[in-house]
């Protein structure tokens, strides 16, 4: 059954308008950095552009073609801005405004010369879709793979459609030169490919935003909201995994339990907001003193755990002394005053044998930490004996 040009244009208008409206609704009141509003507006401009092309096929006013081409170029700018917002990077003004000015100028200069206007505008639009594909490729977040590849496939398909159209136009085809003509089958296929491409890029982008939101939710669910370090549940998961690896490889694992001395006095004297500031500052100071393979976690209240893979107990005690000293030198500014705190640290280390109970090992480090408290605070206690406090040079 033959398909006429108005039907093709109407199909694109309906699909673009429906998807644009759906994206706008789905992105309502969501963070603007997701770019969903920009993407939805871009699709609405695509629909508006093809409405103008449809009107031209009836009233034959050349300015409708000019405005429709400009709207298409602007729609791709909004799509690029959406990707820009999502990836949190910035395109240059020339990359965004240049294609629009080119389309506007070429469409106006060649308004009465379709054999020059149509190929030149198609070439610019092809470059814009190539920019969309390039921007998608530069995203290396593994959690976005499904959406990224779907978007990349759609953008590549759109660029290929314009490339095919250019090849056929330069080969003497009359595609797009007169919109009122009955389209040939290859031309119908390119329009259908455009529909598929629009669906793919839009679904890909929406999926990317959803995947990122889910990844951020999982990450935040595993982090302590105040200090930004792994929470108790996340730390225990990591600890159990490291213990299993250490048991297979027969290498030592050490654990530090650090507790802020007289933390209740800080809250009572300066208030709980000051206590929160102290907790964040101590967490940052502890984190700064660790290696990349070490893990710091908030165990609860003012207690922190430090997991040290492939570290014997003596090495862990040395690091604990360093951490104790750096916290002792910490000065937390608060409302014109300076808050100073110290920490007591318990150290326990072992070479795991078979399946180990992470909680049992934590209890050993916890007992050592309380021994440090009883011994006068601001000191390090090993689970199998006292380690004298020694100043650590800066």
Describe the structure in brief.
The protein has helices at residues 5-26, 36-59, 62-87, 93-109, 114-137, 145-170, 185-221, 232-249, 263-270, 272-288, 313-328, 358-374, and strands at residues 253-260, 295-300, 303-309, 332-334, 337-339, 343-350, 380-382, 385-387. With 394 residues, the chain is an alpha+beta fold.
Structure description:
This protein has 394 residues and is an alpha+beta fold. The chain has two domains: 5-221, Rhopdopsin 7-helix transmembrane proteins (Up-down Bundle); 232-387, Reverse transcriptase/Diguanylate cyclase domain (Alpha-Beta Plaits). The protein has helices at residues 5-26, 36-59, 62-87, 93-109, 114-137, 145-170, 185-221, 232-249, 263-270, 272-288, 313-328, 358-374; strands spanning 253-260, 295-300, 303-309, 332-334, 337-339, 343-350, 380-382, 385-387. The strands form two sheets. Strands 2-3-1-6-7-8 form a six-stranded mixed sheet, sandwiched between helices. Strands 4-5 form a two-stranded antiparallel ribbon. Strand 7 (380-382) and strand 8 form a beta hairpin. Helix 1 runs antiparallel to helix 2 and helix 5 (114-137) packs antiparallel against helix 6 (145-170). 41% of the residues are buried. Mean pLDDT is 85; it is low at 385-394.
Helices, strands, pairings?
Elements lengths: L4 H22 L9 H24 L2 H26 L5 H17 L4 H24 L7 H26 L14 H37 L10 H18 L3 E8 L2 H8 L1 H17 L6 E6 L2 E7 L3 H16 L3 E3 L2 E3 L3 E8 L7 H17 L5 E3 L2 E3 L7
Question: What characteristics describe this protein?
Answer:
single chain; 394 residues; alpha+beta; Rhopdopsin 7-helix transmembrane proteins; Alpha-Beta Plaits; 2 domains; six-stranded mixed beta sheet; two-stranded antiparallel ribbon; 12 helices; 8 strands; 10% strand; elongated
């Amino acid at each position: 059954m033959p398909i006429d040009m108005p039907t093709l244009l109407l199909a694109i208008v309906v699909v673009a308008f429906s998807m644009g409206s759906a994206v706008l609704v789905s992105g309502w009141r969501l963070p603007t950095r997701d770019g969903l509003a920009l993407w939805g507006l871009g699709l609405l401009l695509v629909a508006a552009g093809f409405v103008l092309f449809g009107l031209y096929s009836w009233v034959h006013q050349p300015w409708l073609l000019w405005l429709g081409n400009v709207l298409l170029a602007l729609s791709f700018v909004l799509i690029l801005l959406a990707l820009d917002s999502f990836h949190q990077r910035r395109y240059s003004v020339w990359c965004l405004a240049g294609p629009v000015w080119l389309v506007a100028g070429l469409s106006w200069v060649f308004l009465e010369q379709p054999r020059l206007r149509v190929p030149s505008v198609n070439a610019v639009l092809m470059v814009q879709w190539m920019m969309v594909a390039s921007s998608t490729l530069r995203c290396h977040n593994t959690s976005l793979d499904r959406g990224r590849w779907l978007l990349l496939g759609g953008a590549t398909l759109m660029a290929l459609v314009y490339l095919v159209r250019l090849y056929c136009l330069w080969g003497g085809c009359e595609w797009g030169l007169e919109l009122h003509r009955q389209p040939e089958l290859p031309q119908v296929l390119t329009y259908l490919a455009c529909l598929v491409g629009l669906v793919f890029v839009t679904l890909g982008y929406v999926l990317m935003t959803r995947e990122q939101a889910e990844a951020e939710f999982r990450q935040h669910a595993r982090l302590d909201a105040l200090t930004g370090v792994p929470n108790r549940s996340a730390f225990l998961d990591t600890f159990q995994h490291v213990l299993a690896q250490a048991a297979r490889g027969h290498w030592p694992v050490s654990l530090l339990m650090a507790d802020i001395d007289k933390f209740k006095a800080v809250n009572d004297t300066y208030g709980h907001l000051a206590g929160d500031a102290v907790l964040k500052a101590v967490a940052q100071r502890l984190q700064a003193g660790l290696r990349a393979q070490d893990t710091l976690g908030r165990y609860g209240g003012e207690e922190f755990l430090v997991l040290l893979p492939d570290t014997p107990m003596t090495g862990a005690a040395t690091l604990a002394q360093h951490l104790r000293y750096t916290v002792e030198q910490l000065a937390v500014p608060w409302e014109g005053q300076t808050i100073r705190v110290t920490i007591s640290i318990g150290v326990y280390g072992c070479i795991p044998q078979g399946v180990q109970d992470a909680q049992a090992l934590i209890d050993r480090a916890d007992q050592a930490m309380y021994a440090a408290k009883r011994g006068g605070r601001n000191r390090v206690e090993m689970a199998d004996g006292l380690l004298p406090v020694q100043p650590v040079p800066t």
